[in-house]
Amino acid sequence: MENTVFILAIFLYHGVIFTESGRPDSSVTITKFIMNHGYAVEVHNVITEDGYILEIHRIPGIIHEKLNVTKKEKVALLMHGLIGSSATWLVTGPNISMAFNLVDKGYDVWLGNNRGNTYSSKHVSKLETSYGFWDFSWHEMGIYDLPATIDYVLNNTNKKNLHLLCFSQGCTQTFVMGSLKPEYNKKIKIVVALSPGAYMTHLSGLLRFITPFTYMLMSISEEVGYFPVLPASPILTIFTSNFCKLGSIFQPVCIFIIFAVVGFGNEEVYQDKLDLILKFEPAGSSFKQVCHFGFGQYHPGTFRQYYYGSKKNLELYNSTTPPDYPLEKINFPIAIYHGSGDYLATPEDIAALVKKLPNVVEHYLVPGEKLNHYDLVFGRNIRQLVYDRALALMEKYN
């Protein structure tokens, strides 16, 4: 009975998402946002080895300056988190956001987008609505999306390596790539990791109540197909941006719901920009990504490949349990920054990650502030708390 209800809910969900009309052209929206702040922007398309078309955004400099990006020695690639997009690094605007800060410091900035989000919902042969399109996790993002994006950026800038900045799941896929495709380690000068996701042993908040059902949800999804989670939707965008805007009587409720997932703390929340953030996020992901994180909490102290059930595991991995990612193969320098109030990348789990990574050059738990997960990208004072420190460290690797 439970399975039947779940399957019917999936079909209803698909119907709502895929019959919506008037889907906004998000590429135009984000490029206008960038240009309205006085920065140049380019749109590029990257095709992965398995056929997904990723739209990535480049900010080569300030519009009124003479752009000569071929002479820029500093190249930075930024990767977003779960249900995020390139907009994650932009929406807090100049003087605060990491992307604009990097441009101001002379970097040629590239903003990645993973398969399935607002900007990367196309495939060379599969429709977004087809069976199999959403059959991917952050594992595929690590072995396909990130390597393809890195190669594209390096080829277009005539460079041998770059700086990589990641947030949350963007760091997860970075660890996957560094573990399973170690030849890419030499293409990275340093990784700046904000609230990196790997171990989920101490996951807290609302999502902790969902993880006990991970195996059941995975089993059903393997039968009926995986589906999108919180995709870019006109209905959702209109609802959340109005429901959560400054002055709305519902904004405290909106903030409470977000805090219940990422961690509580009012010090850094950008109440007057929350509606703008929610116009770009959530940007969508696959339910398989959520399941993959759930397995980490279900099996404490592990960071493993996807669990498909004993039979399929045996076929894929020659073992009934998935193999651990060999983090010891990652040799690029990595600097980790995070907050003590983070429900998703907790201090305990990050401490376990630091012990596994062989080349951590800085591990900085922001003192005196109970920063939650989103504060590392959306916090009003995050430049002073973290970014200036991280940018100073990056300069040493130029």
Low-confidence stretches: 1-24
CATH level 1 name: Alpha Beta
Largest sheet: 9 strands, mixed
The number of distinct β-strands equals 11
Q: Report the CATH superfamily.
A: Alpha/Beta hydrolase fold, catalytic domain
Alpha-carbon distance between the two ends: 59 Å
What is the residue-averaged pLDDT? 90
Number of domains: 1
**What is the level-2 CATH architecture name?**
3-Layer(aba) Sandwich
Strand content range: 5-15%
The proportion of residues forming helix, as a percent range, comes to 25-40%
Shape: globular
Question: What does this protein structure show overall?
Answer:
It is a single chain. The chain is of the alpha/beta class. The termini are far apart. It has a single domain (2-395), classed as Alpha/Beta hydrolase fold, catalytic domain (Rossmann fold, 3-Layer(aba) Sandwich), CATH 3.40.50. It has helices at residues 2-18, 26-36, 98-104, 138-157, 169-180, 214-224, 234-243, 251-262, 274-280, 287-298, 310-317, 347-356, 375-378, 382-395, and strands at residues 42-47, 52-59, 75-79, 108-111, 122-123, 162-167, 188-194, 228-229, 285-286, 334-338, 360-365. The protein is built from 14 helices and 11 strands. α4 crosses α5 (169-180) and α6 (214-224) packs antiparallel against α10. Helices cover 39% and strands 13% of the residues. The model is unreliable at 1-24 (pLDDT under 50). β10, α12 and β11 (360-365) form a beta-alpha-beta unit.
What topology does this entry show?
Blueprint: H1 2-18, H2 26-36, E1 42-47, E2 52-59, E3 75-79, H3 98-104, E4 108-111, E5 122-123, H4 138-157, E6 162-167, H5 169-180, E7 188-194, H6 214-224, E8 228-229, H7 234-243, H8 251-262, H9 274-280, E9 285-286, H10 287-298, H11 310-317, E10 334-338, H12 347-356, E11 360-365, H13 375-378, H14 382-395
